[in-house]
Amino acid sequence: MNGVIVRGLSVLAMALLFIGAITSVSWPKGDMDQTSNQDVGWTMFGLTTGTGYGIIVLLIGVLLLVALLGGIFLAKEERE
């Protein structure tokens, strides 16, 4: 029972921390800039084949997924 209360309070404290961090930022008013979806697409995937950052982002995502799964595998307790 105490573990559930501690976990609940921890989640509540983390949520309040996130909400406090978001509300304390002075967000700019109005339109941020004139970047369009097409500009973002050109930056991510490039104007021609072989340019852009799309494949790099994909490879980094796969690497992070493998690292996460490896960490879970290493942290798992073995039962005998």
Supply the helix-strand structural class.
Answer: mainly alpha
Mean pLDDT: 85
* Through-space gap between termini: 28 Å
State which percent range the strand residues make up.
Answer: under 5%
Count up the domains. 1
Instruction: Extract low-pLDDT stretches.
Output: none
Q: What's the oligomerization state?
A: single chain
What's the gyration radius in Å? 21 Å
In DSSP terms (H or I, runs of 4 or more residues), the helix count works out at: 3
Report the order of strands and helices.
HHH
Total beta strand runs: 0
Q: Please give the largest β-sheet.
A: none
Properties at a glance:
0% strand, flat, 80 residues, mainly alpha, 3 helices
Write up what this structure looks like.
By secondary structure, the chain is mainly α. The protein has one domain (2-25, 37-75). It is built from three helices and no strands. It has helices at 2-24, 37-45, 54-75. The longest helix has 23 residues, at 2-24. The two termini are 28 Å apart. The mean pLDDT is 85.
